Amino acid sequence: MNNFNLTEIASAFVVLFAIIDILGAIPVLLSLKNKQHHFDAAKACLVSFLMFILFFFAGRSLLALFNIDVASFALAGSFVIFVLALEMILGIDIIKNEGNNPTATIVPIAFPLIAGPGALTTFLSLRAEYHMVNNITGLLLNLIIVYFILKYVDKVERILGSSVIFILRKFFGVMLLAIAVKMFATNFKIIIAN
Fold first, then answer.
1. How far is CA 104 from CA 60, 107, 113, 188, in A?
2. Does the pLDDT of residue 32 top 90, yes or no?
3. Of 31-45, 60-74, 135-149, which range is least confident?
4. Phi, psi of 103 (to 5 degrees)
5. Which range has the top average pLDDT, 18-27, 98-107, 110-119?
6. CB count, 10 Å around CB of 94?
7. For residues 84 and 105, what is the distance between their CA atoms, to the nearest angstrom?
8. Distance between CA atoms of 93 and 100, rounded to whole angstroms?
């Protein structure tokens, strides 16, 4: 394991932690739970891990297969994030429950909250920076944290209290909206330039 490097693991971990931003997603998770959306923490982490790995090894080829570039993929993801942000800020339901057993495990938790376009493309770009084993280790460490936050989000709510959660939901809704707008603007410029 000559390629195993703690500095590279730490760097990959910090970059991914910032872009995944699971702490910032806590109000989104609570909002989904309050709307009776159920989710499985282990399944969400497993699905997002598989998405990261698939994108890491075959992202550009996979998108090219559908004649989609990375910028268009990120632009589409910005719309999903935008809708989630509007729900949080305005307190309205845009994404409706489907079926008798609504689940948010895959969408929007695994994608785009955990393995969103920004996180996927960032992970892909880390390939050029650090060795594969260090990138994957940094990702796994992030997903362990994500798992515990997803699993115990109700306890987090009890500790913080409903008024703090309400303020956080509005604040992070605005932050999520800003991220969506920035993601849209950045990738729209790339598409127009090409």
1. 27, 5, 11, 28
2. no
3. 60-74
4. -130, 140
5. 110-119
6. 10
7. 15
8. 17
151-188 in b/e burial notation, b at 16+ Cβ within 10 A? Answer: eebeeebeebeeeebeebbeebbebbbebbeebbeebe
Determine the length of the chain. 194
Q: Which structure tokens are listed for 39?
A: 């989710």
- The span from the CA of 51 to the CA of 182, in Å, is 23
As given in the structure block, the two tokens for residue 105 are 């495990």
The dihedral through the CA atoms of 5, 10, 13, 14 has a sign that is negative
Q: What is the pLDDT of residues 137-174, one digit of tens each?
A: 999 999 999 999 999 988 877 887 778 777 877 877 78
Q: Which two tokens stand for residue 65?
A: 């297969």
CB 38 within 8 A of CB 104: yes
Tokens of residue 56, six digits: 């890491």
Look up the pTM and report it: 0.71
Closest CA to 27 of 169, 186, 156, 188: 169
CA distance 12 to 135: 6
